[in-house]
Amino acid sequence: MIAEIIINSNVKNLNRKFDYIIPAELQDNIYIGSRVLIPFGNKKELEEGVVVGIKESSEYIEKLKEIAKVEEYSGINKEKLELAKWMANRYFCNVSECIKLMLPPGTTTKIIQNRVSDKKQNFVYLIKDSEEIEKDIENKKIKSEKQIRALKFLIENGDTGILSIDLQMFSDVSLAVLKTLEKNGYIEIVEKEVERNPFLHKVITKTKDLKLTDEQQDSFEKVNASIQFGEYDEFLLFGVTGSGKTEIYIRLIEEVLKLDKTSIMLVPEISLTPQTVDRFLSRFGEDNIAVLHSKLSVGERYDQWKKIEQGKAKIVIGARSAIFAPVKNLGLIIIDEEHDASYKAENNPRYNAKEIASYLAKENNCPVVLGSATPDMSTYYKARNGKMQLLELTKRANNSELPEVKIVDLRQELAVGNKTMISRKLYEAIKNNLQNKKQTILFLNRRGFSTFIMCRDCGYTAKCKNCDITLTYHLKQNKLKCHYCGYETKPFSNCPECGSQNIRYFGSGTQKLEEQIKKMFPEASTIRMDIDTVTKKNSHEDILNNFKNNNIDILIGTQMIVKGHHFPNVTLVGVIAADSSLNIDDYRAQERTFQILTQVAGRAGRGQDRGEVIIQTYNPESYAIVLAQKQDYKAFFSTELLLRKQLRYPPFCDIILIGVSSKSQVEIEETCNKIYNSIKEKIKTKNLQIMLYKPVPAPIDKIKNKYRWRMIVKCKLDEKILFEISQTIEETNRTIKNSKNETRIIGDINPTNMM
Ligand code: ADP
Ligand code: ZN
Ligand code: ZN
Q1: How many angstroms does the Cα of residue 576 sit away from the middle of ligand 1?
Q2: Are residues 29 and 77 in the same domain?
Q3: How many CB atoms lie within 10 A of CB 663?
Q4: Ligand 1 pocket test: which of 212, 238, 247, 279 has the largest number of ligand atoms within 8 Å of its C-beta?
């Protein structure tokens, strides 16, 4: 028998099937979905692959090699292979890259069977940059195969550290190997408390169903009908913050459980907090639930994965990639905060979890529910046009009022000589709140101290040497940092261009805000949350719990504070600069601003007292800000829709972004032109209905020493267009196959990040 095999590689030319002979002794163990090791080309090592087809004979039978080994357990089946093929086609990537998303965590190279639940407490962290390690491997500074295996595993799976026993098992090395790596400065082995079971510390009290409000009941019944009849349908649950969406999810999942089917609920990574999970735990108990997200160790993720695969957990709660959980008998998919950008992957495969959800729901005849207080323009547009069912919740479930929102014009503050980041109105409100022993949240979407430094005499601004990005000043370490590549340098007192000492620090980040607040309100306790204060030891969750439980007066933070938490004692939310997201070079700038402001405002007044929100801005007449003040989604939607229509942006079309990056300016332009001309030609010869824009440098035109260009295609996406553009990308890829300048081409459908 002959097996058709796809090789595990993201090299574009290998994205096809290869025939191999199935040796007699493996005949019984090979099925579609098997993971195998095979000899390939003149490589010494065996390559990994997945069997995608089995047949009697092959036209190349003379030249075929044999499969060398088969893994006992693969985790892949026919349905998953079909999905992987569909994805590869849609998202311009290799089938093998998509299969990877579906494999049991940590087993991309090794199969683990009997997991040991040990109490060992050694955690392993990478302490060297992955690029440096890869260089060391290339330069033969590290030679041992075992060391390389362990390091590679860590690079792929270890951003949050890995339990030493897991690392040893997954990469098949002894503790001695890890000790050597530690001695050589690659890793650190730290003793830490381990919870293999993420729910272990929980005291769970069972809660009962609440009596649904009329609006909730109505929405529940509509989705439930499709659950009971086993019909595919899509719903948008559009409900203001606190309107009881989660309560509906719980009730729907209950119905699915009764049918002995499985539910998947996706939430944005950042709001996947113990608080969120607790509500489900206390309703369904821990045996029924599996949680999947990146903060779990690989070992924990593996356990959760198994629990789903064996059919023990019938409720899967997770971030984006949990959509690939190995569920059987799917009965419902819920995507909470569906407008959140994290549902779209920004690296290959650049998939959108909402699209995968539709695919799976169709295959399994079950409903998809998208929930949000500020739905994505495209989702609401679909619902309004009857392409999906619209369910509305207009009132907060516990009758707490929506907060009162005020706008402060920062230009007037400047006019009266207020140079601080806090307007007079916000100052008074904070002071009042402190007196009343209530908590305040201050939101600013820029971290660091100053966002750029500039020479006043010649206009020189400090930029990263690797990226086209201004460096941000960080006070505590007294350093200028690049937020894209991590480059750091000492701030200068003399201008490198003209020697002048007249250097000024502009723009204000969260560090500066914290400093000013401490000066203005020395008696207040404050806590700051941004990427710089969130570390391995001091998680996002710890900071928020500290704020809540220790009744800290003021929480200062970036985007991270926006979601998931319920702070009953917060009555004031201040938005320091609403403009930062308005000024970005993206057609969704207004939509993002409206969403962020509405979500931030939703943090205020969730308890007994009515909340107050103060938005500071230099653009008080911007409709995104005015309508966020009124918390009027529908008015925002209509205004924005008109603009989108005029400018022909989604939802009136799809956008395909074709990006090229390279170390060579010449090569990048050549490559772009090849793609551009090829598509242009196809518009004529194949009658493609698309608008093609000329290639231009991306808004951030250099990152990590690689130039970045892009071109944009607007169209109504269909099979034919996808096919032709894939073809063009593949053909052009062949011409840059051996590029020394690391030239790469990517295709991205409706990207969330246009930078
Ligand atoms: P959302 O998910 O829309 O933000 P939640 O489901 O978190 O809203 O509900 C907000 C608050 O209202 C929660 O404290 C929840 O317990 C409460 N709640 C929800 N539904 C009801 C109901 N039917 N009766 C009473 N309280 C409810
Ligand atoms: Zn100068
Ligand atoms: Zn940089």
Answers
A1: 29
A2: yes
A3: 16
A4: 247
